[in-house]
């Protein structure tokens, strides 16, 4: 096995593996694999809002399995969704698995067909940092606004109300 392909959804993995053949193993990361910790202060407001991420307990097993397989492969293909969440998941995979950029390829496809998957493998790209930054900005704003404003709503209006970057403005 020379190639590890990582997708978000386990439902896609077997189908894609069938398209690519025996030189590829396809595994799922089951969505996001790192997050901002629930406790503490994971966003350094004084340092350009730098976030600190952790692998949550429920993701440690999948990260360990992916890391074990990745170490045995010459190339890791990040085939997460093409939106900003998928781009961020690929970026987090690079960091959580300590992937070498020269051995990591980013691929996307809009349909799960052999033609689309093979076309993606033939034309890999780099991770789009603009999309990653967009997702991080959204996540950081959700945390800053939601964690600060929600407790005020609970005290002043009604328990269990939630505030976020969209709801609060409304």
Helix tally equals 5
Largest sheet: 4 strands, parallel
Which structural class matches the secondary elements? Answer: alpha/beta
Instruction: Output the strand order for the largest sheet.
Output: 2-1-5-6
Q: Give start-end ranges of low-pLDDT stretches.
A: none
Span of the ends, CA to CA: 52 Å
Q: Helix proportion of residues, in percent?
A: 40-55%
Shape: elongated
Strand content: 5-15%
- Element string (H = helix, E = strand): EHEEEHEHEHH
Mean pLDDT equals 91
The radius of gyration is 18 Å
Structure, explained:
This protein is of the alpha/beta class and 170 residues long. Helices cover 44% and strands 12% of the residues. It has 5 helices and 6 strands, in the order βαβββαβαβαα. It has helices spanning 10-20, 60-72, 84-96, 114-122, 129-156, and strands at 3-7, 24-28, 43-44, 50-51, 75-78, 104-106. The termini are far apart.
Structure in a nutshell:
By secondary structure, the protein is an alpha/beta fold. Helix content is about 45%, strand content about 10%.
């Amino acid at each position: 096995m020379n190639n590890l392909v990582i997708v978000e959804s386990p439902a896609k993995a077997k189908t894609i593996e069938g398209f690519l053949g025996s030189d590829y193993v396809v595994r799922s990361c089951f969505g996001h694999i790192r997050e901002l910790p629930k406790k503490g202060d994971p966003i350094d407001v004084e340092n350009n809002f730098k976030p600190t991420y952790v692998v949550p307990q429920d993701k440690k097993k999948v990260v360990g399995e992916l890391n074990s397989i990745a170490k045995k492969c010459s190339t890791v293909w990040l085939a997460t969704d093409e939106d900003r969440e998928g781009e961020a998941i690929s970026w987090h995979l690079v960091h959580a698995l300590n992937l070498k950029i020269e051995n990591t390829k980013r691929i996307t496809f809009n349909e799960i067909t052999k033609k689309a998957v093979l076309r993606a493998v033939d034309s890999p790209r780099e991770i789009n940092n603009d999309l990653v930054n967009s997702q991080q900005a959204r996540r950081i704003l959700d945390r800053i606004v939601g964690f600060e404003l929600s407790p005020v709503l609970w005290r002043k209006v009604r328990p269990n109300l939630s505030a976020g970057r969209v709801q609060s403005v409304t």
